[in-house]
Amino acid sequence: MLRTGFPQSDEDQPDSTIHGICAVIPGINVDTDAIYPKQFLKTIKRTGLENALFADQRFDSDGRPQPDFILNRPGFRDAKILIGEYNFGCGSSREHAVWALKDFGICALISTQFGSIFHNNCIKNGLWPLTVSQHDLDVLIGRYATEKPNRITVNTDALQIFPGDGTAIRAGLSSSDHAQLKSGLDEIGLTLQKADQIAQFETGYVQMFPWLDSAHSRVAE
User: Fold this and answer.
1) Closest Cα to residue 14, out of 22, 23, 5, 1?
2) Inter-axis angle of helices 116-125 and 96-104, nearest 10
3) Which of 9, 90, 114, 120 is paired with 131 by a 20 to 30 Å CA distance?
4) Does residue 151 fall inside a structural domain?
5) Residues of the domain holding 121
6) What pLDDT band is residue 220 in, cutting at 50, 70 and 90?
7) Residue 207: pLDDT above 90?
8) Quick one: 173 and 84 in the same domain?
9) Domain for residue 27, yes or no?
10) C-alpha angle with apex 80: 57 to 154, nearest 5 degrees?
């Protein structure tokens, strides 16, 4: 079956606002193996992956939650937005890292830079990868790297982040990625929106160069 849209529930439709608990994942170059450890690469399903998210840090060798890890702390289990540092999502191309983040309930990520393949996987799966300046990231980390959870708001139309202190931080995202995330469609879905134009082009192309059409060539033989 062709995948023409982001995997999402009826309650998780594209909207102009993401509002919720924000958690900080410290450290530069947090790679996809940290986000989704290799020992869990045994499925191609996109659900049931939330317990694998940051599993090597979230749980000890007996599977017990590590109380110091941010997503195990009271209130942070409901986080919707993660703040990461430089080059978040670098490493392998495993799409499972994005699937696990989505399955946990994460809707948006904030960093100065994301791993390029990880960034593309976010776009394909409806997860917002928002970039900010180093100064703004430092401000956000200072506000949200706390013991008690705080909420943050992201306006996905205006690409602005509101940390709740009366200020607004501009977030970076290319126009094409923004349009795709707002549409709720992946590349196949976007292409199918232009099915009429594609069919029109194909018809005209065959008329101009009939010898290139395999069906026409078989008839001629």
Assistant:
1) 5
2) 50
3) 9
4) yes
5) 17-184
6) very low
7) no
8) yes
9) yes
10) 135
For residues 171 and 69, membership in a common domain is answered with yes
* Beta pairing partners, 161: 154, 169
Same structural domain, 105 and 210: no
The pLDDT of residue 135 is above 80: yes
Contact assessment for residue 184 and residue 14, using Cβ atoms and an 8 Å cutoff:
yes
Identify the bridge partners of residue 201 per DSSP, sorted by sequence position.
none
The answer to whether residues 123 and 95 touch, using CB atoms and an 8 Å cutoff, is: no
**Count of structural domains, the chain:** 2
Say whether both 221 and 158 belong to one domain. Answer: no
Instruction: Mention every residue, 6+ apart, whose C-beta is less than 8 A from residue 176.
Output: none
Torsion angles phi and psi, residue 34, rounded to 5? -70, -40
Greatest CA separation found in the chain? 77
- Decide the pairing of beta strands 108-111 and 81-84: parallel
Same domain? 179 vs 197: no
The stretches of the chain forming alpha helices (DSSP H) are: 32-35, 55-58, 96-104, 116-125, 134-144, 175-183, 187-192, 195-208, 214-220
Same domain, 168 and 151: yes
| Residue 39, CA distances (Å) to 30, 43, 44, 66 in order | 17, 11, 13, 19
**Pair of tokens at residue 88:** 């978040």
Total residue count of the chain as it appears in this document = 221
